[in-house]
Design a protein that fits this description.
Shape: globular
Number of strands: 7
Structural class: alpha/beta
Strand content: 15-25%
Helix content: 25-40%
Largest sheet: 7 strands, mixed
Length: 231
């Protein structure tokens, strides 16, 4: 499937941004221009079932296949958030970026020791401004507006396809390319023990203190600081 992409900049190096569940390329509205200012041509995709990309069957491997089908080979860096991090990890061997950044990726068993069931996100489909603001008190008004717009364009079947019997811990055994895992200090996916295990497996791990799961919207400056040396 060819995914819808949005582009910023015209630099000689390519950076790719892959969003998380319920979102689309608009989530990167500050990140894209910031990377373009650093000399990148920035491509942000809409995963299938999100934004302007087609609908169809859904599954972790299909999200990954679409990245391989859509994106140029061997980009300088790919940044994947949450579901985007999961899709990237399944596509990285074929994409072969020089560097991969996984922002609070949806791999792990979560803080409860059980896989986080994406079905818990279904009620957000009908979220109003008060609900979005309540869950994300640090977001700008622009990010709240974007979240409401992306929720309207989101196909909830994407979550159901990763739910129930499809839940599993997909943490990679080792990085395929030099890889950073950026963890939300106030997120729900990683324990300290899980972070230590990622280090043992060969990932560089950095935590953004105080940030919620969507790090780049919760603490934009902390997100960029956490990428120093990687972008």
């Amino acid at each position: 499937m060819q995914l819808h992409t949005h582009e910023w900049g015209a630099g000689g190096r390519t950076a790719v941004l892959v969003h998380g569940m319920m979102s689309d390329h608009r989530t990167w509205h500050r990140v894209g221009p910031a990377l373009a200012d650093r000399g990148y041509r920035v491509l942000a995709v809409d995963l299938r079932g999100h934004g302007r990309s087609p609908r169809g069957e859904y599954g972790a491997e299909l999200f990954a296949e679409d990245l391989v089908e859509t994106l140029p080979a061997a980009p300088e860096v790919v940044i994947g958030h949450s579901l985007g991090g999961l899709a990237l990890s399944l596509a990285v061997e074929r994409l072969q970026p020089r560097r991969a950044v996984y922002c609070d990726p949806a791999w792990s068993l979560g803080r409860t020791g059980q896989p986080v069931d994406p079905a818990v996100f279904l009620p957000f489909k009908n979220a109003d401004r008060a609900m979005v603001r309540g869950f994300n008190p640090r977001w700008s008004d622009a990010d709240v507006d974007i979240e409401l717009a992306t929720l309207a364009d989101w196909d909830t079947a994407t979550a159901l396809a990763l739910s129930g019997e499809h839940r599993t811990d997909r943490t990679p055994e080792k990085p395929v390319v030099p890889s950073l895992v950026q963890i939300a200090g106030e997120g729900f996916l990683f324990t300290d023990e899980a972070a230590a295990e990622l280090t043992r497996r060969g990932f560089e791990v950095r935590t953004v203190p105080g940030a919620g799961h969507t790090i780049h919207r919760d603490d934009f400056e902390g997100f960029l600081t956490g990428l120093e040396g990687w972008v």
